[in-house]
Amino acid sequence: MSGIRWQIYNTVFIPKRWREYARILRSAQEAGYKFLTLEQLALYVQAGSVPPEPFLVLRHDIDTDARAASIFSQIESQLGIRSSYFFRLKTWNRGVVGRILDAGNEVGYHFEELATFAKHQHIRDRAKLLERLDEARQDLERNLQRLRKDFAIKSLASHGDFANRRLQSTNSILATDPFWREKWGILYEAYDPKLVAAYQNHVSDKPYPERFHPQSPLQHIQTKQNFLWLTHPRWWQPNPNGNLREAFIRLKEQLTW
Predict the structure, then answer these.
(1) CB neighbours of 205 closer than 8 A, spacing ≥ 6?
(2) Fewer CB in a 10 Å sphere around the end CB: N or C, the chain?
(3) Residue 146 — pLDDT band, cuts 50, 70, 90?
(4) Do 232 and 61 form a contact (C-beta atoms < 8 A)?
(5) Residue 244, pLDDT score
(6) How far apart are CA 228 and CA 71, in angstroms?
(7) What residue ranges do the domains of the chain occupy?
(8) What is the pLDDT of residue 77?
(9) pTM score, whole prediction
């Protein structure tokens, strides 16, 4: 199948993969894994202690389909597992977030203010963008205040946008200042070097035909390695309308930036 056909397949025809998700989680349980939220791992790191091994951190980035996040949570609840969910502004759904929190999970903010600021201000030069970090950070602060009217948010995870890749600047740089974090009550950012070093191995879901990168979580489970498994609802449930809408928005941004 050609690249274009795979793109169409992943946008419109991707199958439901929830049974596969549950099967992988049960395999980890049978192998003796301890499931941690990112917040729990961050507290271990900050205390200078080592969590029980082997451990698996489940992180969900809710980029395009808030309702599908509830299915991750339902499967995990049936297995007695808790995980970490990060919602973008565009996927923040108070009802969904509330149910996920009620199930005992962690919810954080999947932030992208640096990329958004660059696109809105038509800044395509990295040096010029870095000169205006304070303005982008103010946008982050306003959005945190907005979300905290619904629920307490104390964790962040940088979203990866095409603008970040072109500018070679991640959104994470808005949240690296420890004094800013203390002021705003931020416990961690998902790409903190010490946090990444603590879980050692990173697995992400991918569109077909790859499905996982750099390898299947089952390969880590077989060797009982600690790892973080990052998932996105769009690769586990069909959502053609949402996927097409997201593709259109991205194309429009690329043309107008």
Answers:
(1) 211, 212, 230, 231, 232, 235, 236
(2) N
(3) very high
(4) yes
(5) 85
(6) 19
(7) 17-256
(8) 98
(9) 0.96
